[in-house]
Amino acid sequence: GGDGIMKIFIDSADIDEIKQAYEWGIADGVTTNPSLLKKAVTKHKKKNKNLNLKNYINQILKIAKGSPVSLEVTETSKTGMLKQAKNIHKLFKSHKNVYIKIPINPAFKESDTTHFDGITVIKQLTKLKIKTNCTLIFTPEQALLAAKAGASFVSPFAGRIDDFIRVSNKLKVDKTAHYPVWGMQKKDKTLHDNGIVSGIDLVEQCVTILKHYNFKTQVLAASLRNTRQVRESAMVGSDIATLPFTVIKEMLKHQKTYEGMKNFTKDIVPEYVKLTK
Length: 277
Ligand code: E4P
Hints:
- The chain is α/β, with parallel strands linked by helices.
- It is 47% helix and 14% strand.
- The protein has an eight-stranded parallel barrel with strand order 1-2-3-4-5-6-9-10, surrounded by six helices. Strands 7-8 form a two-stranded antiparallel sheet.
- The longest helix has 14 residues, at 34-47.
- It is globular, with a radius of gyration of 21 Å.
- The model has no long low-confidence stretch (mean pLDDT 97).
């Protein structure tokens, strides 16, 4: 488990967003994945002629100032992932804050035989003292095996579990809309995926199991798409929540806060300003 209160990571590979979140003083780390990197690189290429990816990643690591930055492998075989993880580690070693994201199960389908390669690679990297973030976690038992293999972080994908439960039950999917932590009912039955009633329920079950056995592994609630999921991640005791930039911004907003600011401003006593400004 973690140390202290829930850390907030920014779920982005966009330098402008990362810089802003660190300037606000609310970011404790960064998570990227191949899709987030693609989005950021596409944006970067529109503004700049050339992309020096090594420089680009070095900039992110510099902004993060020693706080954890997750970079994902794109290889899917045991030897491929291991080699790539070692290369990533070596390339950015000086920053001392790179966590290699390894999928819990790199197979594309049931008939693949590579299911256990993620765990094997995490185990080998742990032996080499290379830190890992085990990604694409959709069950508590995947989290348990990743923690046993020595992963520093396990990343349960809350939003995608909510998507999956809705799609499996032919419900309308609105990716950013709140999905109740206690699940949804249909014909008097609570919808679930093998006993998981929601994304946040998945996070909670991972937290419970890892706390129970005092694992050092931290639960990193991922695929969070709205502020209520952030609140619920904190309520179930997640060690870390990784948030898209938009969700970070949403966290401080309320219409009554704006209204209150307007009203207080109307009531300002000039002598008070003179005395204190
Ligand atoms: C973590 O970095 C995950 O890859 C990410 O949170 C996934 O989020 P998504 O399901 O909204 O794509």
